[in-house]
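Structure tokens please, single chain.
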Amino acid sequence: MSQISRNKLEVSEPPRSAVRSGRISEAGKNSFKILYGGQELPAKLKGSFYEKDAEALPVVGDYVTFLYNDQGDSTILSVCERKSFLKRPDQSKTGVMQYMAANVDYCFIVTSLNEEYNYKRIARYVSIVLSGGAVPVVILTKADLCGDVDRFVREAGQISDKVRVHAVSAMHRTGLENLKEYMTPGTTICLMGSSGTGKSTLINAVIGEEVMKTSAIREADGRGRHTTTHRKLIELPDGVCIIDTPGMREMGMAEVQNGIDDTFSDIIALEHLCRFRNCRHDTEPGCAVKAAIQSGALSIERYRLYQSLGDENTRSFAAKKTAGRAKKSGRDDHELFY
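Here you go.
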């Protein structure tokens, strides 16, 4: 390398003192906010990011290195290794993935003990959370309006031996003490659930003050109006981080086979006991799954849910591969054209 080239390289590289580490608190299409020193700094991506796959781009909760700029947008240089990564297919069912949050310790899956309660939807959430490497915690709210809370706690707890379940009432402040074990300094909690289930109200009740914005209840159906419109990380004074997410009407399955296996580990264990390795659990003799269903050890509803989620995951993964090939083909054609 010539002396001129070395000088150019030295000028182009920022001094190490200018490179800092922070955490993504908001992620937009072309803009980001970095939580650093108690402040939120506007930021943009380094140009090389646009050559990477979408999975490599920063999401809320990511730790990043960045070039600090006190006069405008800082520049994100790299994304640090993730310890957990939550993702799901987008609602258009095209196979395109939606990347939700990173470095989450616990996921509070919030659902109300009213008409909003849906066992199958909770199972979907649990599978996605387990696949992403976080701990699923099902929070059953409005327990004061339910006549048989224990039944729903047992049912939700049967989804997986890795799920934790709590029933609470923010209005009467019952069950909230049990949630404080998760609120330790340095912990990150992601809130997930349908729109209007009171996720923000729940956190405000646990903390004891209004740290998250809430909206009034609709009289028509007793559900809260949707307040959160985008994912956002909030750091509480005690060092706990909360990632609030918009309500999700649908929760598709893709690239979460490990999470499905973890959720239905009891069925996976039974499959290993079948006489034939490729048993379809239909007419084959020596099928442990059929035997468990016939004895009542495994409910047919749970087995059908396992099959349904697995089939959906397979279809979505195939759609993602097709979309990826189409994108690559289009890029290659574009390159050849020029």
